[in-house]
Amino acid sequence: MLTKSTFTQNRLLTILLFSSLLVTLNGCLPPPTGSKPPSRSVQFVSEHLTLGNPSQASTVDPDNYLLEKPQFAISYNRSRGIANWVSWHLSPEWRGDAARTKTFRPDPDLPAGYSTIKSSDYEKTGFDRGHLCPSEDRDSNPTDNAATFVLSNVVPQAPKFNRETWKYLEEYARKLLDSGNEVYLVAGATGVGGTGEQGFASSIGNGKITVPAAMWKVLLVLPNGTDDLNRIGVNTQVVAVYIANDQSVSAQKWTSYRLSVNELEKKTGLTFFSNLPPDVQIALKKQTGTGY
Asked: Of 53, 176, 181, 283, which has the most beta carbons under 10 Å away?
């Protein structure tokens, strides 16, 4: 026969065990509908920086300022008034028949305090407003096409260079899509001083905009697919060029200006393909762009 004291002790023990069980089960159950899950840090990586960030651009250095747009990524240089480089992914999804916008305008995404580069700064200078990410690489819809006309995506280019040599290289990249490929591209400007229709100049726009000495571009070509980083191997096609910003370069085909990525890195101080395995980087950077 249980005493009153023993009964009370057993009851208390039962309550404690039941409470412990409830706590355990509660930790296993999903959160109630409408409740917020625990917060966690998620790092967004732009499609256009899949292969890496050539200069480790960020939002700290105004001369290596990173702008990540839906259409491309930019490393902008406030001191030069132009981009160091622009990186973008070209695939069939980015192509269409949207009309060319033709409205150059200041980039509204640059921080306050940066000099405002205007379309009029290029007028009567002897240099074209030359795209880095081309208009025709972003013609799937009017919004994407208009995005290429921000002046952070534009540099002073010698007209013959822009309208012939650079244009033919841009067309080559788009033709790769016709044979079932997609392309990762990065293009930029380096040095000071180019020769346009009115001769040599080191800057335009009352000194706000540096005229680059040379332009460069890197293309990595893949068959259409998914999981791109894991499909890139030592035999993936790479094309790299380095071309003077000069009227005279149109006398030769763009293919005559090809070089290895290793050589281009030495000329620019940049690092390409940093998101790829070391052995793949080494192999791709040795290519000289033959076979096209």
From this structure: 53
